Each structure stands twice: as structure tokens, then as C-alpha cells.
Amino acid sequence: MCGIIGYVGDADETLSILLDGLSNLEYRGYDSAGVAVGGEGLRVEKRAGQLDTLESALADASFAGPVGIAHTRWSTHGPPTDANAHPHTDETGQVAVVHNGIVENYRELRDELEADGVTFASETDTEVVPHLIARELRAGRDPEAAVRAATERLAGSYALAVVVAGTDAIFAVRHDSPLVLGVGEGESFVASDVPAFLERTRDVVYLDDDEFVRLDDSGWTVTDADGAVVEKDVRTVEWEAEQTGKSGYAHYMLKEIHEQPVSLRQCLSGRVDELDGRITVEELDDLGDPETVQFVACGTSYHAALYGAQLLRAAGVSSNAYYAHEYATAPAPVSGDDLVVGVTQSGETADTLSALREASRRGAETLALTNVVGSTAARESDHVLYIRAGPEIGVAATKTFSSQLVGLNLLTARLTDRGVERRRDLVDDLRGVPNAVQAVLDESEAAAVVDEYVDADAFFFLGRGLDYPVALEGALKFKEITYEHAEGFAAGELKHGPLALVTQDTPVFAVVTGDGDAARKTIGNVKEVEARDAPVVVVTDGVAEAGRYADHVLEVPEAGRRLAPLLANVQLQLVAYHMAARLDREIDKPRNLAKSVTVE
Amino acid sequence: MRLDSAVVLAAGEGTRLRPLTKHRPKPLLPAANRPILAYVLDALIDAGVDDLHLVVGYQRDRVQDHVGPTYRGRTVTYHVQEKQLGTGHAVLQARDAIDADFLVVNGDEVVTAAMVEAVMDAHSTTDAATLGVVESDRAAEYGAVRLDGDRIVELVERPDDDTYRLLNAGIYACGPSLLADIESTTRRAGELHLTDAIAEQLRDGNAVRGVRIEGLWSTATYPWDLLTVARDLLAAGHVDEPERSRGVYVDETANVHGDATLQAPVVVGPDAVVGPGAVVGPDSALGRNVTVESGAVVEGSVLDIDTRIGANATVVDAVTGQGVTVGPGGAIPGGEADVRVGTTIHENRRLGCIAADRATIGGGATVAPGSLVGPDASVAAGAYASGVLPEGAEVRR
């Protein structure tokens, strides 16, 4: 999703710091980029395409000045072109604006401005903002008042950073779109995400909705919508800037797949007590005893949510998972006795935030299951459970999904623990997971298996019970990074329709763990697709001897009913990765996709 | 002189350490409860070296996963040696990143910061290279060195001659021109060795400085040497975990039951668990997330990550790889035995057993002294195993 970085400090360093910031934000996905450097005058350069296109455009220009803003754009209104790239300016080039989010009333604002004689240079919603500010400046307001007055006119979601020629300051404001300050020595930053400036400072201030900030050479001041000064805590983030390197791997995704034993250990550390057989999640000490639990999430997190809901149902708690975007407009009945859990890696997913807000408005308790400390979801929810996976840069979520599954086991244990029950089996299973994942990584034959199916027409993924969310996630990962057609189905649904798609050119990946009813029935479905001559790859812990019906078997160690699906998913991560590598795809930045989707 | 950059050699398997090296190279084998490589990187950083270059090859994923993009905040650059064609060839992989005098350090030998500093201090730009040398009565088993004052006059790999008293500690300070010299060095059996390049410098009459260094230098040639490495490190208190009582080092996140006994010297790693009535130590190291259940006895052993020792099991003089399981009441009684490695028999080694990654020793099973249990091999409950068990082998009752 779009990225913002703004800098106030050393005039000679402004441009290079902004470009470093943009490159640190690349992982969010983008299709154009631009910078504006201010001070005496205001210079803007912007280009469609990758960052190096912008950099070569800047090569022969001298860009110095004590303030600057920059942006990576992921198109929503208007295609990726030089004109549509940010920063956007007013007609005189005195005001430059970068924006994340969507201005919902931009059509009417644009009509109004055009009626005033303003000429627009782009097709974006953002461009109304600099023109509104310019109008306020012409009306005699000072730059700060002008920015405030202009933002009052906006409906929708926005994080804005603004520079005005002749003023050595950045003005920034947020509404339903993330924005953080970085506090350095003699310099300060504003960005959509911490990694943008993490090389320069780890001291950050998270802005809340409708807070306004002014950054200048004397520091930073946060004010509320009425202009009253707000005291903000400066927090120190623990992530290392360089934790975002690839450590010798060709792609972040493969690095992150391999990090899973470590990230799962972090997730479990101090939370499972082998001697006592207990599971403790400190953050959840004051969590009540809800009647029902509703999960809201999108994408990979939604698959984790499906898994979590099933765990809770199996433990006797009424629970369901909903797409957050559907829930926000068509919520399920909810009351004060219910818990609504938002599963979001970034904690900034706009759809999930809306769903959580809707649930909270209707009186439910809310909980965020997230990876990012201090994220909007973490701050706005009544409770938060951190999955501690560390930064994830690859757009395709891998290690965070595994940590979400473990986090959901912890949550389930917490919600179903009546204080007397020991959970030694679960504790043993959980402590064994990092080692089992390591075994999959050491011994996977996924690369060799995918080699045989490079020319297939489509790829289907089947599973039942807890293996069903894994089938969905396996297909999602596969389509995200290979661009090949892939679908996940509940195994039992196959013969109610999808079986019509199955041919000898559509490999079927069947996830079969344990030897319960679900496994036996899935094996029945495997035989159905075999009878249609489809190649079958079974991902299994071997308990049900499903391998005998398959052309290939991807094995995982036995790890217990709850956690075997996590291991099967690691195999499917490797399947997707190796196929995408074989097809030479942009694995870390798949086309059209963004890491954290901060617009609805 | 101060040197900023170091090339750390971490590409080699260490074939004599099989079966422990099935899934990882020798630098990642445990020295007490951390990888050998961690000691090397710590020594470099503590000596002020900030630019770290790791040459990786065999099972390089594991090195990259463990070290990551940075180590203690210093950027780590990886150089891949696709085929392991000798230490000289390994150094050349990092050639493009080097433009001044630099260090080369073996990634599979435990060294200290003081040793690295001593080599840097002795080195000057007029030296073709400077080598750290350590006095040892086992010099003939490693690279042996003869000194004349502060000049190296002879450098031989594993000479069959026990008159050598100095060994090459694997810490080299090198001038940038050495890279070109390595390239022009004659290959032996297709391999290009750093020590051959230095020996050629000696023959050409170039100055190669040797500096005697003292302190803890320890490495493993054979799997059972890991027990000695752990003993050396524990005796010197050279472990990361806080000292709870004299010689007892326990990580803050470890969970040791009040009724368990830790006998010094011993180290218990992060998230490790020791149950009631268990006795761990002396000379034992528990890696991350290791579990020793109630009533079990662990003595003179190195247990790597995720190993689980069942209730009332006995484990003496053993080295386990990652994720090894010993069932309840299982016995590795320890003692002296003849150990077979490849075609060589090592007589009267003190060794309980070597159990490679994810080997399983069932409840009540017994493993004879000197056994080598391969990766994923299993010994059934109540069975008796001895000798060499290949990968995935099953011993039934």
C-alpha cells in the first residue's frame, strides 16, 4: 500500500534520507514514487515505475532543503502515471502534498474547485488537497491554519504530509490511516510505517486519529482537532533496522519461511509452562469469559481466523470467522457478552479496523491478534495478543500465519481454561512445533515435486476440518506469487461442483493430517479426483496412510491434531515459493498486491 | 593495526563430524549451548571488527537463519561458495568486498576477542600476513607452525611429527594483495588452500608474522570433541547465561524445578526445562528449549536445541543433535568404547553416544557406549542398540 516519509533536518541530507525511506517502504508494494524538497522554494520530482526511475530523474538535479516529503503510490484513483504520482501540488507549485487513504468526497470537492477556475493536473483524489490548501493560503491564513482548514473539508481516510514553500516545516494529520513520528537528534520524521526511518531512529510517537503534527527545526508538536497541545509518549521500538535484510536469501519470502522455527519460539517463550502444564498469556489476564467469539480478518489472516474459530468450537465455545469487509457492512449479532477478535498482521488493515470499530460500537469486547506493537488495532482494542513474529517484508505472509495459528492455540487455551484443567498435551505439542517445522524445512521435497507440474492448467487444494483453512491458505499463497490459477476447497464440497474442473492437467494438493473422521473422508475425496486422472500430491503426517493414494507425498512430522495443519502449511509455502521461483516471478512484490491493505 | 573487516569461513561441512552435520555445517554445531560460530562472531565484534563477511556453502540456510542479516547490530554480508574447494577458494568468494587489510577467521574454532586483538595489534601493512599461533601438545593434529622470533618459518597441515608445539589458530590478518596471491597458488587435488598460499609467501621470502596468543582456543575434529569443547568453555565460564551460583549458568527464561539439582559446571539455555528430581551436570550444556523430565540424569553431555530427555532416563557422555528424544527410563550409560568413524576405529574413547538430529531412543531402551545414532534413526522401546545406526534406521526389540 502507499508509503509516506517526511524529513526535517539537515538540508544536504534531506534527499538521500527520503530516498532511503522510500526504499525501506518498497515492500508495501507500489507502482510510482516521488519527492518534494522544500525550504526557500519547493522542488518536486515524480515518476511512474520503480524507484530507480525516480532516482535517475533526480540524478542531474540539485535538491537541497531542510524539509522534504516523499511517497510510494499504489494506485486507487487513476492509473500509475507520472502525473498521478505523489507529491501533488497546487497550480503555483507552492504547496506539495503526499497522501495515503481515499478522499471519499473528492468528486464534489473537485467540481467545486473547478467551478472556481482551478485546473487539475491528475486524475487522483489526492490533488484536491493542495488546491484546497492553496485557496486557504490565498484567503490569508498561515500555512498551519490553511492545512487544518483544508483537512476539515475531507471525508474518508487519510494520512497527509504537507510542505509549503517558504516554511521550513512539515504539517501532517491522520484519519483512519496510519502515521508515525520518528524522533531523532536534530531531525524528525513522519512516516506511514516505522521501517521507513528505522535506520535513523528507534524513538517513535504513534499518532491517533485526527491528531495534527507540526515538525520543524525546533522539534515536533502534536495538537488535537481543536488545536490544543496533546502530550504524547515516545516509545522505543525493538526491531533492528537491519532485521529487514535478506540474509543471503534470494527473497524475503524464503528467508521468512526459514525463520519460522525462531519466530515460533519467540511466540511461545514464557507462555507455555512445561512443569505446570499451563498456558499463560500475560497480556490477557483481564480477559473475561465471553459467550461467543467472532473473528474478523482478511486474506491470510482470515484463514488463520477460520482455524481459530474451529479450535474454539471444538472446545465448546460458539465461534465463527467473518471476512472483515463483509462484517463491517453486514455484522453478525453481537452483545457485551461476546468477544470480537481482529486478526491482522500489521494491525493497520483498514477493513479489519472498521469491523472491530463496528463491533466495539455495538458493545462487544474486542481483541487484536497482531504482530505490530503499538499498531492501530492494538491501541484501539480492549485486549491485544502479540504473535511476536518479528518484521515480515515479503508481501505473501508466511511466518506470521504460523505464529497466528500458535497464537490462536494460546487464545483458545486461555478462553477454555476453567482454572483446574491441565493442558500438558497441548504444552508438549506447542513446545515441539519449532523443531517439527525445522524438520519440514530440512527435508522438504517441495522443489522437486513442483518441477513436475510447471505446465499444469490449474492447481486445486483440498482439506477438511482444521486442514481446510490450510487448503485455502495454500491456494492463496500459490496464486499470489505464481500468478497461476489456484483454488482451495473444503474437501467435501468437491463433488458439489468443483469436481467439474478436475482433469489430468490440474494437480490436486490434498492436506490430510491425523487419522480421524476428517482424514478418512478426505482420502475418499482423493480417490474421487484420482478417478478423474488428476495428479495428486498428498501433504500428510502419515498417520492415515494417505500417501498410498498419491503420486507424490510431502511429509510432515506428527505433531498432534491441532498443530499438524501448521506443518502441512509450511510444505505448501515451499510449494508456492518454488513454483514462483521456477516461473521467475517477482516473489516479494507480486503484481497488484500490497503488504498491508490500509484502504477499505 | 586496527582492521575493520573480517571474512569468516563457514562453508565447510566437517565430514569427520558426521552424523551431526547432516543438516548443518560444522560452525553451527554446539559449543556448550551456542553454535561455535556465535563465539567467533562475538570475538570479532568485541575486538572492534564491524564489517562481517560470512562465506557460506554447505547447508548455508542454517547459517543464514541463525546469524540473520545482522549480528549484534552489525551488518553481515553473505558470500556463497557453491562448491567447497578449500579455504583459499572460500576467501576469494569475498574478494569484491575487500580493499584494505582484513582478517580471515575460521568459523569452526572457538576463539576469544583478546586473540583477535593480539593478531591485529601485531599486524602491519608491511606483512604479507600475520597468523595467530597457540601453544598446544596437540599441534600435530591441526595446522602446525614453527616460529623464528616473530616470523613464521614453517606451516604444515597435520604433520606426522609430534615435535611441533605451536598450532595455527585460524586467525589471519592479511594484506589485500594476498587475494591475488591466493588465485595464483597451485591447487592441490583441485582445492585451493589458504595455508598453501601463505606457505608460498614463506617460500618467496615474504614476511609472514606469527604472534603467540593465549586464551581459550577450542575446536572439534570428531563428534566426541564437542564434549571437550563444552568442558573447556564451562571451566572458563565462557557462556552467555547469568551465573546463578558458582559454575551454574541458567538463562532467565529457563524453567528449573525447585527440586531439580544442577551440578556445576553446567549451563541451561533459554526456554529449557528441568523437571523435579532431575540431576543435570557436571560438565553439561542444555540448549534452547531442551526438556529434561522428572528424575532424569544428565551428566557430561551436550544436548542441542529441542532435545527431550524422558522421565527417569539416564544420559551420560552424550552429544545430541536437534530435536532428539530419549524416552522415559531410556539409558545411555556412558563409558569408554571403541568408536568407528568411516573406516577408522578410535579406541577407548570416553563416549556415551552421538545421536544426530531427531533421532529417537525409545522408553527403556539402552544405547551402548560409543554408538553413533544417525538422523531420524529410532531405537524401539526396550531395545538395545550399539555401533553405527545409519540415517532413518530402526532398531527393534
Identify the notable features of this structure and list them briefly.
heterodimer; A: 600 residues; alpha/beta; 8-stranded antiparallel sheet; 6-stranded antiparallel sheet; 26 strands; B: 397 residues; 10-stranded mixed sheet; 9-stranded mixed sheet; 7 helices; 35% strand
- From the spread of the alpha carbons, the general shape of chain A counts as globular
How much is the radius of gyration of chain A in Å?
A: 25 Å
Question: Count of DSSP helices of chain B?
Answer: 7
Largest sheet of chain A: 8 strands, antiparallel
Measured distance between first and last alpha carbons of chain B: 63 Å
Percent range for β-strand residues of chain A: 15-25%
Task: Specify Rg of chain B, calculated over alpha carbons.
Answer: 21 Å
Shape of chain B: globular
Low-confidence stretches of chain A: none
Q: Would you tell me the structural class of the helices and strands of chain A?
A: alpha/beta
Task: Please tally the β strands of chain A and state the result.
Answer: 26
Query: Biggest interface: chains and residue counts?
Result: A-B, 31 and 34 residues
> What is the β-strand count of chain B?
40
Q: What is the beta-strand fraction of chain B?
A: 25-35%
3D structure, described in words:
The complex is a heterodimer of chains A (600) and B (397). By secondary structure, chain A is of the alpha/beta class. Chain A contains 17 helices and 26 strands. In chain A, strands 3-2-4-1-10-9-11-14 form an 8-stranded antiparallel beta sheet, covered by helices on one side. In chain A, helix 10 (350-361) links the parallel strand 19 and strand 20. Chain B has 397 residues and is α/β, with parallel strands linked by helices. In chain B, the strands form 8 sheets. In chain B, strands 1, 4, 5, 6, 7, 9, 10, 11, 12 and 13 form a 10-stranded mixed beta sheet that branches. A 9-stranded mixed beta sheet of chain B has the order 15-16-19-22-25-28-33-36-39, with helices on one face. An 8-stranded parallel beta sheet of chain B has the order 17-20-23-26-29-34-37-40, with no helix packed on it. In chain B, a hairpin with a 2-residue loop joins strand 31 (336-341) and strand 32 (344-350). The longest helix of chain B is centred in the first third of the chain and has 11 residues, at 36-46. The termini of chain B are far apart. In chain B, 59% of the residues are buried. The model of chain B has no long low-confidence stretch (mean pLDDT 91). The chains are: A alpha/beta (600), B alpha/beta (397). The interface between A and B is medium-sized, with 31 and 34 residues.
